Fold this protein.
Amino acid sequence: MHHFNYRENELYCEDVPIRTIAEDVGTPFYLYSHATLKRHFLIFNEAFDGVDRLVCYSAKANTNQAVLKLFESLGSGLDIVSGGELYRGLKAGFSSDRIVYSGVGKRMDEIDYALEAGILMFNVESLEELHLINERAGLLDLKAPVAIRVNPDVDPKTHPYISTGLEKNKFGIDRETAIEGYKVASRLDHIDVVGIDCHIGSQITEAKPFIEALESIKRLIEELRGMGIEIKYLDMGGGLGITYDDESPPHPREYARAIVESLKGTHLKLILEPGRVIVGNAGILVTQVLFRKSGRVKEFVVADAGMNDLMRPTLYKAFHAIEPVVRGEGDPITADVVGPICESGDFLAQDRKIRNVKKGDLLAVMSAGAYGFTMSSNYCSRPRVAEVMVKDDSYHVVRNRESYQDLVVSESIPPFLGD
Ligand SMILES: *Cc1c(COP(=O)(O)O)cnc(C)c1O
């Protein structure tokens, strides 16, 4: 359920015709619906009612300050994967004791920053990282709260690039090494073992892999208890999928029911790190058709947004529905919707049946709220696009479109090149 709907032949975000925003801010731009963001967070959070839990929204899906602020105000915690995300989270008002920090490659300065901020826990992904955190915490005379990210070796049946819980993936620590890790951690002076963590992948469209992972983690928790190591937090990660095309992922309530059922009788505090399921369908990318072009074997719609603005189609062959902002006349066409970038991989859709569109028409690239703007780049010196948030009948630019000056502001010419 989202708040991007047609009235007559015109696409609205909540009560605002998207065309009017495009006229005001230009194209391309990301557009987020406040009501959808809020609804998705609340549905997910309330699905776990009655259970001691902390939902830590996964920042990397969408880190706009306005989006973060909204979730913070709704009682969310935050899952971060970098010092930059910690900075953004603190800036948006998240209390540091509601922040969990995952990622295989935490740098020393990032670890120090998180220790000084006093985050809830580090999700540790290697023994070397564990030792580094212990060492840095020692220098700061602190105890670092840690969970070990365990790789339960279950197949999430998703795109290989977003599957993270298989033994061949770089993430987490296999069960045997994790037990070793817990033994070591429990003896380190500046480590406080508080949790266990797993995150098996993203865009997962069935409940089974989550439950398999959970069962495996539960057995591990029992084993650790037998060794005198008590686990307080069970972090299930994120990964619940959304409908881009015809997928039918479990509803958050179904997902929650399965997890809660499996956790009966334990006294663990549950941590969840949803990203995509909260923001994915709460955002779209609005782009304008620059040209139509008929090749000998293909029909092309050239849009003013490309792979630098929305990388998912190029990176994962991901499907995003493409709808006209104003529905016109004519039979549907089958076309490649491509961007202006000098790469053959630069497409938003391939061989797609869409409504007939012409030069100047606006297109809505749907389900672009997650891993859209955050993955965008300046490739081909394209300024990053604006982000806009709608609430009811008004809208606000929550990130200005970058200017040409922004492109070079951090660059300098060395003296030996003259001026
Ligand atoms: C990316 C990520 C998430 C969020 O994944 P979604 O599929 O967007 O829910 C959660 N936890 C970790 C550790 C991640 O890397």
